[in-house]
Amino acid sequence: MRSPRAHLLILAVLLAAGNVAWTFMRSGVPFALEGTVERIEVRREKHPGLDDVHLVTIGGRTLQLDADVAGALHEGDHVSKQAWSWRLSTPREPVRLGLSNDARGMLVTMPLLVLLGWMALRWGARSSAQ
Amino acid sequence: MSETATLRQHVVTVLRMAALGGIGVLVFVALLGERSDYAGHFIAGYGGTLGLFALPLAMLGAPLRREPLVLVIAAIAIGAGLEATIFRLAQFDPVDFFNQSLGAALAGIAVLGRPRAVLPAAAAFVLALAFLSLGARLAFA
Predict the structure, then answer these.
(1) Number of domains within chain B
(2) How confident is the model over A36-72, as pLDDT tens digits?
């Protein structure tokens, strides 16, 4: 496993896993949350309304959350959830957390790209051996 | 290795460079179409890294063995620096970083073990320009 082939494939797997993990974390599901929503900030990116960054500060901790989750919260709300729970308690209806379109897309796209790299490595080994 | 076999090997290298980037960006567009910036970062990372390979491909020597991993890591570091500075809009976006770095890794895979020559070096340069241009269009369109 010390060959450049293995290193490049492992690197691709780690980067793909990072994408899946980060888009999943934006759902808020992995986090235990308890406290008051102190600040909700929307920062514009390249495509306003589509790729905005939603930063929510709860109990002194700032998280980047999906637009749906951030949109269901108001500053001053007391919210709570356990880590890995898919329900976020708020003063109003509980918010059901879920995978965003980004996270669902990454779950399929990333394995396909790693598979593409793996196939290219196998094909490369065969064609350079000829 | 005969001249014909060598030419065929170089054509295979060019096809690998074009196909990995082309298929990769199509997968992004097909499955994450509304986030064209994701596809843009991926293909820009792929193209930029191919551009780094143009020089070592043009030099005389054994097929590329260790160089791709070193250049991919360098490309990832350059990409991280760009994302943290001139392309930092709302914040340093880890997803953009992962996408462009994954493109870099696939570019390394495309050229790994391939023989050096002017033809694949020139193709790497041209494809780099084309993919970088496509990346900019997708990321900022």
Answers:
(1) 1
(2) 999 999 998 788 877 889 999 999 999 999 999 999 9
Chain B 36-75, CB below 8 Å of chain A: which residues?
A: 36-38, 63, 65-66, 68-69, 72
Domain identity same for A1 and A42: no
Co-location of A64 and A83 in the same domain: yes
Chain B interface, best mutation among A44, A113, A114, by max B CB count within 10 A: A113
Would you call A9 and B109 a contact, using CB atoms and an 8 Å cutoff? yes
- Using CA atoms, how far residue B35 sits from A49, A70, A99, B103, in Å, is 12, 19, 15, 16
| Statement: residue B29 has pLDDT above 70 | yes
Tell me if chain B has a CB within 8 Å of the CB of A129.
no
Looking at this predicted complex, what is its ipTM?
0.91
Q: Residue B122, class by beta-carbon neighbours within 10 Å (0-12 exposed, 13-18 middle, 19+ buried)?
A: middle
B71 lies in which domain range? 3-140
**Whether pLDDT at B4 is above 80:** no
- Its domain, for residue A44, covers 28-98
